[in-house]
Every structure is written in structure tokens, then in C-alpha cells.
Task: inverse folding
């Protein structure tokens, strides 16, 4: 930038994990340009988590409104023009949204990561990166406008009321809380209920209070019920009982979290709680819990080699593997051993 930007628009609509990654970049930008006005175009659910983020104006894009959502964007930004748009999402929905945001400079991804006509909606690109984590991709946008990015930090918008609600929900627990957030967005990415239950029993035997968290969907409710049925230990079931900010506080008050490739894993990272991630379909080096990638238990790489005949380094970065039974390859003992390792390493 030839001069400090006075107005910056962030475009990242979804998902929960990704907007958590983006917060670190946004707050690094705020530290570098404290006088810049920042507007973030974001999805409806994601806005519930980040509402009241200091110094950020949120404009909610509700994808369920269809064409009306784009018309609302145009109305919102009529008569405005940003110095720069950081277009952090390549999905077609986001690309069409970018067309509705007036900005002098529209920065998007490098050619290697561009898809779904992304290139048509930008006039500048971030520099390519070698095997970046999603979070590092967002940091590259900040670097492009002159921001130095080091180890990410987060200051999440939670209140004393949210903290107290979480404390009340955990009232029956001791000061060592092991949270299982078992459900991903797709059933194929979930581990088996009886294996989650076995890890819960192991944690309880080590003196941890075990808590299950999740949303109100039937999939999450059924998985939580199955875990509780299999487990021969006390479990506090909070599935469907927490709003996103209260869930964030529950994760903050936890000692350790176990989760597959799902938003709460990344929420936990933002509040400094160690995460054991379970990965089979996507590369944990790209989408794993950023500060705790050494705590991942994965079968991604062996399945990638089996399906593609090549390693992750030999293929386009971020290639996924397919299969409904891949998560079953993660063995209970592997996760228990990682649990013991993390407890010792983190002195929990």
C-alpha cells in the first residue's frame, strides 16, 4: 500500500472454522492500521459467533435469501467505496457477493487457489504459498497490505454473562474438563460413538469430567445419545444447550477438546484450549487445529496414497480423499495414547 488504507472490507462468509482463522488476520490488520474502518461481510450463523468483535462493522449475508441477499449488499454499500477489499473466499456465492462491494483494489487468492470464476472478481492477488494452512492463507492477505503476521493471536468477543452461563453449565464438573465435540458437518467425517465412549471412559478414569457439546441437529443429538449409551462413566451432555458464544466459553473453560474436522475444534484454538483432532478426509496440515497440529490423529495421508498413488506433496495442495468408512480406520488406542501424550505435554 502506498499509504495506509482508511477503509477495508473483508469478505469471508463461512464457515465457523474459517472465520475463526480469519479473525487472527483481521486483528493483526487492526493492530497495524488502528485508524482504518473495517467492514466484514459474513454469513448469518458466523455473525452470531463474532458479533461485537471490537472495531468491526458486520454486514450479514444470508444465503437463504438467494438473489435478495445480493440486492441487500448493493443497497448497503450504495455511495460507499472501500480502499481495499480482501476477498478471502473462492466459492461462487462469495465471488458474486464481491461484485456487489465497491472497492478501489480487490485482492483475491493466487492463481493456484482460484476457482469458480474467482479471477473475474479481483484485480490483485496474494502471493503463492508453499503448502499453507488455511489460516496462513488469510495471513497472506494481511501481508499484501503491509501487515506483519507472526504467531496468530485472538481476542474473541465474549462477555462476563457468556462466561457465567458456561460456568453454570459446567457446575457439576471438576476443574479438569474433557470436552468431546463429536460431530462434523457430514456424518462420514464423524468417528464411531463406541470409540468416543471408550476415550471418555479413559478420561474419566484419569480424573477428568467428561462433557459432550454440539448443536441441536438430529445428527448431533443422536450421536451424543449413542456415546452416552456406550460409555460406562458420567457424561454431561450439553448438545443443543449452548449458543455459539456460550459454547466458546465452555471450550475456553475446558482443559482439553477432542473433535473431528469441525468448527468447535478451531473455536477452541482461539481461546487457547488444546485440541486432539481426528482427520481422514482432508489434510490436517491445511485444515487442522492450527496451534495443535502435533496433536492430530490422522489416516488422511495413507488413504491419499492409496486412492491417488501420490503423496500430498505430489498433488495439488488440499486434495481430499473420499469414502464413508475412512474415520473407522482411526483406532481407539491411538486416540487414547494421544490423550495421554497431550495431558503430559500440557501438564493437565
Result:
Amino acid at each position: 500500500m502506498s499509504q495506509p488504507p482508511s477503509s477495508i472490507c473483508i469478505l469471508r462468509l463461512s464457515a465457523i472454522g474459517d472465520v475463526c482463522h480469519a479473525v487472527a488476520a483481521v486483528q493483526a490488520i487492526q493492530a497495524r492500521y488502528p485508524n482504518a474502518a473495517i467492514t466484514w461481510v459474513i454469513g448469518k450463523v458466523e455473525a452470531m459467533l463474532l458479533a461485537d468483535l471490537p472495531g468491526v462493522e458486520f454486514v450479514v449475508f444470508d444465503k437463504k435469501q438467494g438473489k435478495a441477499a445480493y440486492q441487500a449488499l448493493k443497497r448497503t454499500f450504495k455511495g460507499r467505496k472501500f480502499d481495499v477489499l480482501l476477498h478471502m473466499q473462492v466459492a461462487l456465492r462469495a465471488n458474486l457477493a464481491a461484485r456487489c462491494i465497491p472497492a478501489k483494489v480487490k485482492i483475491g487468492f493466487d492463481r493456484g487457489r482460484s476457482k469458480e470464476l474467482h479471477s473475474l472478481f479481483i484485480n490483485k492477488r496474494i502471493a503463492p504459498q508453499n503448502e499453507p494452512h488455511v489460516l496462513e492463507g488469510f495471513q497472506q492477505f494481511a501481508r499484501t497490505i503491509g501487515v506483519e503476521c507472526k504467531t496468530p493471536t485472538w481476542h474473541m468477543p465474549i462477555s462476563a454473562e457468556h462466561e457465567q452461563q458456561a460456568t453454570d453449565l459446567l457446575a457439576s464438573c471438576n476443574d479438569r474438563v474433557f470436552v468431546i465435540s463429536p460431530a462434523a458437518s457430514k456424518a462420514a467425517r464423524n468417528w464411531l460413538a463406541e470409540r468416543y465412549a471408550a476415550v471418555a471412559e479413559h478420561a474419566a478414569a484419569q480424573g477428568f469430567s467428561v462433557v459432550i457439546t454440539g448443536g441441536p441437529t438430529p445428527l448431533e443429538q443422536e450421536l451424543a445419545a449413542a456415546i452416552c449409551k456406550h460409555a460406562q462413566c458420567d457424561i454431561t451432555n450439553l448438545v443443543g444447550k449452548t449458543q455459539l458464544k456460550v459454547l466458546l466459553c465452555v471450550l475456553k473453560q475446558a482443559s482439553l477438546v477432542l473433535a473431528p474436522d469441525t468448527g468447535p475444534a478451531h473455536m477452541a484454538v482461539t481461546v487457547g484450549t488444546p485440541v486432539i483432532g481426528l482427520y481422514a478426509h482432508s489434510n490436517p496440515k491445511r485444515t487442522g487445529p492450527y496451534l495443535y497440529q502435533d496433536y492430530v490423529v490422522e489416516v488422511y495421508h495413507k488413504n491419499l496414497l492409496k486412492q491417488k498413488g501420490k503423496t500430498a506433496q505430489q498433488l495439488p495442495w488440499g486434495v481430499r480423499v473420499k469414502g464413508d468408512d475412512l474415520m473407522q480406520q482411526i483406532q481407539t488406542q491411538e486416540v487414547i495414547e494421544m490423550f495421554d501424550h497431550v495431558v503430559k505435554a500440557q501438564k493437565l
Q: What stands out?
A: The chain has a mean pLDDT of 97. The longest strand covers residues 37-43. Residues 214 and 339 are 21 Å apart (CA to CA).
